[in-house]
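We modelled each protein-ligand pair independently. The example shown here corresponds to the zinc ion entry; the chain sequence is given first, followed by the ligand as SMILES.
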Amino acid sequence: MEKTRPGRCALCCQTKELQLSHIVPHFVGRKLIKTSPGNIRSSNEPNRTIQDIFKQYMLCSDCEERFSAKETWFANHIFSPYIDKKEKAFSYDEKLTYFIVSVSWRTLHIDLEKFSQDPLFNKDSLMILFRAEQTMREYLLGKRTDLEAIQNHIFFLDYVQSAPSLDSSMNPNVVMHRTISSYSVCDGKTLFTVSNLMGILIVTFYSMDTSENWVNTKIELGNGLLKAENQHMTSVVGNEIQYWMEQGAAAQQNLSEKQRKKIEDKMRALGDDILKYPIIQDLFADFELEE
Ligand SMILES: [Zn+2]
């Protein structure tokens, strides 16, 4: 693919050279590759290994630049310390909200192209989403400082010790900690974009049903403290974890004999070195769940 392509920037709306933008920031994919004993695979096409996660011509270089300082801050202050199991409490400032909004906005912007072409899509929901996309775009451009009723939450997906509602044979720990995804969902009155960054669940709500209950997860505009403990949620977002597990299980089944053998050979070649990889901890945790 070419490095840039002329077009209209999704954020500043100027016609410029567009960069091949990552939808989920690049550092997440890099971390997954670095901590994987084998190649990373897309659950849609399990027989193909992917070099990089989803990219699209979307932003000009000035707008990419707007996002990059906040991405670096999030990678260094929250993502890496948490994934490397070094820290569980994080003080934050406005940069955290900006980062979350930048990720959710990119995803919502792309999803709205599909949603708006679907004649069966609920029109009221579509209006809420279009308005949210506009509000977030203005916020990201520095044209406003509030986000209206939009709420941002972070939920840390710790090890599952017991989960009667989850099918433990589907490797919930591996799936939660080794998945990268980002998409928007309309579930009744609850409209949101969810991104799973290897076990850090980032959720932006555009509207929320009264049955939603989130404890110790909300990110305030401005300063705050976020802890990866005593968090709870009763939410339709929980359905997505089940969905990722089902996708993971289907991908396993669709894996060809040739690819399966390739993976086994690679694991065997690693020998005891395999124990250094975090996925092994997840496999052990899932194994204990099954007992
Ligand atoms: Zn731009």
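The mean pLDDT is 86.
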